[in-house]
Amino acid sequence: MSKHVDGPIGVVAGLVRSAFLVDAVYAESAREYGLTQQQGQLLCVLMPRAYGMSELGAVLGLAKSSLTGLVDRSERNGLVRRNPDPHDSRAVRVALTGRGARLADEFYTETCRRIEELTAGFAPEERDTLAALLGRVVEDNKVPSVFMEPDHPH
To answer: Largest CB tally within 10 Å, which of 10, 15, 100, 126?
Structure first.
């Protein structure tokens, strides 16, 4: 436990408060790029490849109606397109447009930079320890790959 202005902070408060912090950074970055947080998440998820709607809903944790609205709005804004699924004539795959890919790359790069700054005061070994522990939390809870590590090829 580390000391904080309102007393010691444990794992629960630490995780919850850091989630709020990262969420706020992500929201501010999205706003500056003219995106909603959900659109920013959608663009980042689609960076490496196209997804079918049901798979995309599962990765983003969205109900079908919410996902359809998100994809509709993003399509109207020229960020994504629906392509026929080559393996299922009734299904579509959602992919980034050229404009969406450029915006996704800019948004992703800037958001990574801002999140990286949150640990700017850490020594390299502290960052490695934090990354290892958070990695275990993510893996143990089977969190989908909604955001890639900045040095991971996309």
So the answer is: 100
Q: Is the model's pTM score more than 0.90?
A: no
Over residues 125-148, the mean pLDDT reads 89
Q: What is the 3-state secondary structure (H, E, C) of the chain?
A: CEEECCEEECHHHHHHHHHHHHHHHHHHHHHHCCCCHHHHHHHHHHCCCCEEHHHHHHHHCCCHHHHHHHHHHHHHCCCEEEEEECCEEEEEEEEECHHHHHHHHHHHHHHHHHHHHCCCCCCHHHHHHHHHHHHHHHHHCCCCCCCCCCCCCC
Q: Residue 73 and residue 7: Cα distance in Å, rounded?
A: 44
List 85's β-bridge partners, or say none: 88
What is the DSSP pairing of strand 2-4 with strand 7-9? antiparallel
pLDDT tens, residue by residue, 15-41: 999 999 999 999 999 999 999 999 999
Q: Burial code of 110-120, b = ≥16 C-beta within 10 A, e = fewer?
A: ebbeebeeeee
Six token digits for residue 42: 């959608």
